[in-house]
């Protein structure tokens, strides 16, 4: 269990997590890809490492292929409609499995492989 700091509307919050997104990434990679996908560093966004703010992009996480870095919104666990924290990590891992596909057919197939 660990805590990250996020500032919302000028107020600083401590967001406590019961799972580590890096562990979830490594487990999904092992379970569904025989560990063959490259290991990206997966961390929560915090005040020192904010999510890149790109208009029109998915706001819950981002995947930087050049840096092999995935950043997850600190409050991802609250987004049940996309499967919570595990769902957000799976989404970003699908980008690793299907680079240069945006949210196309190969991406969708990679995501289904982990979430069915
Ligand atoms: Zn995406």
CATH topology: Zincin-like
What characteristic shape results from the CA principal axes? Answer: globular
- Class derived from helix and strand content: alpha+beta
Residue share in helices?
25-40%
Distance between the termini: 27 Å
Strand content: 15-25%
Q: How many DSSP helices? A: 3
Q: What is the CATH superfamily label?
A: Metalloproteases ("zincins"), catalytic domain
**Strand order in the sheet with the most strands:** 3-5-4
Task: Please describe the biggest sheet, giving its number of strands, its sense, and whether it closes into a barrel.
Answer: 3 strands, mixed
Low-confidence stretches: none
Could you spell the SSE succession in H and E letters? EEHEEEHH
Question: How many E strands?
Answer: 5
Average pLDDT for all residues: 89
* CATH A-level architecture: 2-Layer Sandwich
CATH class type: Alpha Beta
SSE inventory with pairings:
Blueprint: E1 2-8, E2 11-17, H1 21-33, E3 41-44, E4 61-64, E5 69-72, H2 84-97, H3 105-115
Parallel strand pairs: 3-5
Antiparallel strand pairs: 1-2, 4-5
Helix pairs in contact: 1-2, 2-3
The structure holds zinc ion (ZN).
Please outline what is shown here:
The chain has helices at 21-33, 84-97, 105-115, and strands at residues 2-8, 11-17, 41-44, 61-64, 69-72.
Keywords, separated by commas or semicolons:
116 residues; alpha+beta; Zincin-like; three-stranded mixed sheet; two-stranded antiparallel sheet; 3 helices; 22% strand; binds zinc ion
């Amino acid at each position: 269990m660990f805590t990250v700091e996020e500032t919302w509307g000028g107020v600083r919050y401590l967001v406590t997590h019961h799972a580590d997104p890096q562990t979830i990434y490594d487990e999904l990679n092992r379970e569904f890809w025989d560990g063959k996908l490259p290991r990206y560093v997966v961390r929560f966004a915090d005040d020192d490492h904010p999510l890149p703010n790109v208009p029109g992009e998915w706001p819950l996480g981002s995947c930087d292929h050049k840096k092999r870095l995935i950043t997850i919104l600190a409050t991802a666990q609250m987004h049940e409609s996309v499967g919570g924290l595990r769902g957000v990590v799976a989404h970003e891992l699908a980008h690793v499995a299907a680079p240069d596909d945006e949210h196309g057919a190969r991406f969708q197939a990679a995501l289904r492989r982990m979430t069915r």
